[in-house]
Structure formats: C-alpha cells, structure tokens
Amino acid sequence: MSAGTTPVTLPGGCYGLQLQSSGREFNAKPGGTVHVPDEHLSEVQASNAAQNGIISVGLHLSIGTRRGRPCTRHGCNFIAQAWSDECPRCGAPTASKESI
Ligand SMILES: [Zn+2]
User: Fold this and answer.
1) Range of the domain at 50
2) pTM of the prediction?
3) 75 C-alpha to ligand 1 centroid (Å)
C-alpha cells in the first residue's frame, strides 16, 4: 500500500490530470477531485496548473483519513480513526492528534 493520497481539486471542464514524468493519468469528473498518491504529489504541486492556481492541491487535507489517534497502551500501537476516543483493539484511550 502507498503511504497515502492527497486530494487535488480540478476546475470545471478539466477531466483529470496527467503527470509529465510518468504519463500517469488521474481522472475525475469535471470540477471534481482526484486523489494523487503522495509519491507524485510534489510533481503535481510543481506543475504549472498548481502554480497558476488552476488546480487546488490538498485543500481538504485536514479531514484526511491518513491521520489517526494512536493507542496509548504500551505494546498495542494500534492507530485508531481520528474520531475514535477508544482503541478498537484493546479499549484503551487514544492519544489526541496534537501529541503525535
Ligand atoms: Zn490499543
């Protein structure tokens, strides 16, 4: 599995974006959002479209699924969902996001 993705918001009429280096395409509905794997994110951010503000990179990152709340119980190390106060595995309280 890859480390994660970052949402990239496309303008109306734009059906997706294509990476110049690899030719890989990410398709979306016009004006929709594509999820770019982190390993390609820097290229997207450096693109003319991003520099000119045509596409918006990572605007919705704050609610991304990549963040979690680690279990505080020693030896568990389970990463619960960001909205979980309890570890679903052992029931111990999870740490707040700020402490990560
Ligand atoms: Zn746990």
Assistant:
1) 5-62
2) 0.47
3) 8
- CA 65 to ligand 1 centroid distance, Å: 19
State the distance from the centre of ligand 1 to the C-alpha of 81, rounded, in angstroms. 12
Please tell me whether residues 10 and 48 are part of one structural domain: yes
User: Within this chain, do residues 57 and 71 fall inside the same structural domain, yes or no?
Assistant: no
Which residues does 19 contact at the CB level (< 8 Å), separation at least 6?
25, 40, 43, 44
Q: What is the pLDDT of residues 31-57, one digit of tens each?
A: 778 888 888 888 888 888 777 777 777
- Report how far ligand 1's centroid is from the alpha carbon of 74 (Å): 8
Do 19 and 56 fall into the same domain?
yes
CA of 94 to the centre of ligand 1 (A): 8
DSSP string, 30-49: TT-EEEEEHHHHHHHHHSHH
| 73 CA → ligand 1 middle, Å | 6
